[in-house]
Each structure stands twice: as structure tokens, then as C-alpha cells.
Amino acid sequence: MTEPESSAPFRTFILKVANRCNIDCDYCFVFNSKDQAARRLPARMDLAVARATARRIGEHASAHGLRTIHVVLHGGEPLLVGVGHMASLLEAVWDGAPTGTRVLFELQTNGTLLSDAWLDLFERYEVAVGVSIDGPPRANDRHRLTHAGRSSAASAVHGIELLRSRPHLFAGLLAVVDLANDPMEVHDYLAAFEPPVIDFGLPHATHDDPPHRADPSVPEYGMWMSRVYDAWLARPEYGHSVRMLEDIVALSSGVRGSVETLGLAPPTSIVIESDGSIEAVDTLRSVEEGASWLGLDVLRHSFDDALSHPKLLHRQHGKDALAEQCRACPLVDVCGGGYLPHRFSEAQGYRNPSVYCADLEYLIRHVQGSLRQHGWSPYTQAASSP
Q1: Can you tell me the distance from the alpha carbon of 337 to that of 262, in angstroms, rounded to the nearest whole number?
Q2: 4: Cα separation from own chain's centroid
Q3: What is the mean predicted confidence (pLDDT) over 32-57?
Q4: Which of 123, 133, 124 minimizes the C-alpha distance to 168?
């Protein structure tokens, strides 16, 4: 394996400001997966931890000459920390940014606790807000129920409607793919809220704990997302993007994508837990206990310490870190071998194709076939494949 020339600095800092949630999604990688560390962490990030995090972010931005950084407020459910405490957290990070570095705040919420008071705070700090919802109430409530087993859909929709009243704060919607739901119905329902972006995420799964399929020989998730692609093209009046699909278009044309789940560009995000621990991508909690743990924290370590951590070397080696089958695949520049957690097996670690390999191939070929019909010429060899 060749050594990377340099490590790409972190540009996105995911702050786990809350480690509790007011709903109980059965697929949640934080509370309902292999790693249960979040239940043992502080319920919310202390201000002292936030200030230490801000200092470390400031150091990193200065050391690497970063003109813009992204700070994502995450959980659990981040709104559980309360408006006053969140204001103090935002102020701490804002104050820690070096002169000349712009801080872009983002927040991901289930939407059920949004209120005008929250939106007033987000106006002050220009916080872009994304909401998680899986589709119409019937679809959403397959997995996203309260701890008492009740629907969360109406509360989420109320929050989205409040957010729509301030569209400059509305970052978009996030839905997890469920094969039991109709993809076109889900797409059109979400698009009707007029989000600028719709994100679709595949359920977190590994080779030891594969995703549910009615027929393991059929790329059902790729087929599902292909129908979303068709619905997206058929509804240009909505004017939104579907991030996964736009990334496939971009990567097929030789342009860098925007998310870590596709492509070969080194990821540039890092997680800071509520106790100040610096961790790898938090979705690794779905893999095994301790998969995201680095043994670092903002009180004693810099983010440059994390850049050189052995657990993060896969971020820097690109194609060389992939399974042999992936390195030889004509689609590798687009799929990037699939999302890291989805490659895992106890036997081979992360040197496997994604558990969604066939699905990604089906979807990428579907998108590239559509591009060719519209006169595009994707740069990958896959573009000329049947």
C-alpha cells in the first residue's frame, strides 16, 4: 500500500450535543445497534467541553488555513439540550473560530421539538436545519415511534411546517430506505414540503448482519432508489436535489461528490462526543462495540492527532484500502467501494465490497443509462458497459 502524500484536514466537526432522544427509531445506530456507548455518555455536552472543542477547532482551522468550517449539531436529539444551553454552545464555537474562518452551523433533528423559540435562535447563528422523516405517516411509523410506541409523524410534520416559514433555515429532509414503502410515494410526499435537498440513507448493515431482503439475489435497494431517481426526473417542478443521486451524476462526470458514502475522496469529518471524546464516523457504532473509539479527547489531544490515528488511515489511502474486487471494478470511482460501515465483516474487517454492492451497481448503471439517453458521456469505463 502506498503512503499518502498528506492528510486532508477535517472540515466538518460533528458535535454530539445530546446523547438522549425523545423517540425510539428501531434502526438507530446510536441507541439500537451493536455499540451502546451513547447510553453511558453524558446526556448533554457540558459548556467546558464545548469551549475545549471550540479551541481545538480553532487550532485546526488556523494550522490548515481553513477559510470555512462546518459544525454539525447532532445527537441523539440535539434539541433536548434546551434553547438556553444550545445558545451557549453556539456562542462557544462561534467565539473559538479564528479571524478569517467562516463557521457554517448545521443541525439534524427529528423535528418534533421545533418551535419559534428554536427558530429565533437559529436565525441568530444562521443554523441550517435538517429534519429526519421517512415519508407519509404509515411509512414513517414503521420505524420512528415514540418510547411509548406512538406515532411521531404529526409532531415531525408540525416542525417541518414551522421550518418552511423560514425557508432560508431549511436544509432539507433525511429518510431511511425501507423496501416496504413505495419509493415514488415517499419521494413525492417529501418533495411536497419543498425542501432544497432530500437525502436517502441505506439502512446500516454489515456482512455479519446483512440488510433485510425478500430475495437476497435481487438488488432490491438499488431498484428502490432507481424508482426514486425516475420520480425525481419526472417532478422537475419541485426544484429539489436528491443528494445520493446528484452525487452519482457528479462522480460519473468526474466531479467530486458531496458525501462520504460515495466516491474515493478522503472524508473530512470527525465526531466529538458529549464527553469530549474524539471519534471516527459515528455510524461505525452499527459495526461492533468500540469501532468508532479512538482513545482521544479534546482536553488532551488535537485534531491533528486524530488525522494520524491508525483507525483513520483508510481515509487517506483511497482505492488502495478497498477489497481487490472493488479495485478492479469499473464503477469504483463512483461507488468508492460503498460506505465504510457497510463493508465490514469480522473475518475481513473493511476489506470487503459493500453489502449493497449489487444495489449500488444497479443504481449507478440506471443513472448512467439515463445520462446517456440525455446526451451525457460519463467518464468512467462503466459508461460504455451494457
Answers
A1: 8
A2: 25
A3: 90
A4: 123
Residue partners of 285: CB distance under 8 A and separation at least 6: 29, 30, 33, 34, 35, 37, 38, 291, 292
CA dist 78 and 209 (Å) reads 29
Residue 34's alpha-carbon distances to 24, 110, 196, 344, 363, in angstroms, are 16, 22, 33, 13, 29
Tell me the three cell numbers of residue 368.
448512467
Helix (H, G, I), strand (E, B) or coil at 108: strand
Phi/psi at 36 (nearest 5 deg)?
-105, 20
- What length is written for the chain? 386
Read off the pTM.
0.92
Run of H or E residues at 326: helix 324-327
Strands annotated E in 274-354? 277-279, 293-297
C-alpha cell at 331: 464503477
Instruction: Record the cell numbers describing residue 319, joined without a space.
Output: 482505492
247: which 3 cell numbers?
452525487
d(CA 227, CA 116): 36
- Which helix (H) or strand (E) element contains residue 89? helix 83-96
Q: What is the mean pLDDT of the chain?
A: 91
pLDDT value, residue 87: 98
Query: Which of 261, 302, 266, 346 lies closest to 60, judged by CA?
Result: 302
Residue 114's pLDDT is 98
pLDDT at 170 over 80: yes
